[in-house]
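Dear colleague,

Thank you for sharing your sequence with our group. We've completed the structure prediction you requested, and as agreed, I am returning the results in plain text so they can be pasted directly into your records. Please verify that the sequence below matches your submission; if there's any discrepancy, let me know and we will rerun it promptly.
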Amino acid sequence: MTESFTSAIGPLRAHHFGISVPDLEAAVAWYQRMLGFSLEERLFIEKIPAHIAFVKRGDFRIEIFQVEGAAPLPDDRRTPNLDLKTHGNKHMCFEVPDVPAAVAALRAALVALNDDKDYAADAMTAIQFVPRYEVSADL
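Please find the predicted structure tokens below.
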């Protein structure tokens, strides 16, 4: 890995992003089917307790947690502009070579986008979507 800056801890790269979901199986299937991730590992951490799966695509991983009794995501956290008013993680971002084609594929698969923007008109725009695991495991 080559970096153009120095730091106290040496080279640094993204390894994974963690999310908590109500249905681990549906979430893993969604990331596999919709974004091309593969299942890397499953484990159970008794101390939390949590069922965990790591999914991987290239060098990037998502750690997906299912914790019994966890609170559902509040409605204001589902709207990106409102969610910015609450401290904490906001989003993860993936780069795709063709934004309009990616949007079309996501819409065809019935993924809920956070707005009705015409992404074909602005290929540099980020796509904001929320996987709706709790609504349908068929996404």
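Summary note from our side: The longest strand covers residues 38-45.

Kind regards,
the structure core
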